Amino acid sequence: MKNRSLPLILAASLLVAASAAHAAYPEKTLRIIVPYPPGGNIDITARTIAPGLTEALGQQVVIDNRGGAGGTIGAELGAKSAPDGYTLLLGSTGTLSTAPPLYPRLNYDPIKDFATTSLLSNVPLVLEMHPSIPARSVKELITLAKSRPGKITMGTPGAGTTNHLAAELFQSATGTRFIHIPYKGSGPGLIDLIGGQIDIYFDQLSASIGFIQAGKLRALAVTTAKRAAAMPELPTIAESGIPGFDASTWTGIVLPAATPRDIVMKVHAALIKTLRTKATRDSFTRLGAETLESTPEEFARFLREDLAKWTKVVRDAGIKLE
Fold it and tell me: Rounded to whole angstroms, how far apart are CA atoms 108 and 197?
């Protein structure tokens, strides 16, 4: 009888130990993987919420930039990290909604490999250009592009990103064709755009708004269905003669799928607390971002629907990446 009871006693002891460990979480520094280089919208979003998370969780939260392959390298790293709650991934449209249909050999599944916490923000993309380009509206850009087929250079933060997909849809809808120059993140592309090495750029408004307001870049329109509150004077692309055009970048925190539920909920609670602070909301507003909140279940449902939407867009547009 004693021998039979031993496995049960051991199992119970392990369960108690695991529960105690979860209760003490977090006990060390956490990291947020940003699957892009410093300077872009996703990086800015992570750095906006990190101080609040540090305060809410009682442990330092650091940013770990892992750029490359349109964000998929960092996203894969997040999916395969230890499910202990100490590695968070700042997911977004580009890595969780558009990458799966674009990359047939993707080494992670956005639905199966991640535990969702809360959505964070929604940011419009902006069609912008170097001030030397002789176009001051979307219509003028279309006319210019058609008069110079294959001559105008177009930067994006990487092949397969939301920015790239929005740009491809723009070309398809307008009958234009630009020379695509993919960068390893928003920051490097913006540097070249400001320097005049490329002509136009599709970027998150949060990453570019400062340069636009300083006159270093000329913005033509935002890609969302509604105008951006941060720059209400900018028309939408739909208003500029391309009805129905709508593209934006959402962000949200996810963890490896096997992360214990109680840890997921602790991270979720810390995120909600951070998002509800005036400092965080004001920071997002200045960046042209809309603050979002959701339960893990709402985030998961949103992700499934957004993935289905972009899968159809990619299929209908015939866009393929290797």
Answer: 35
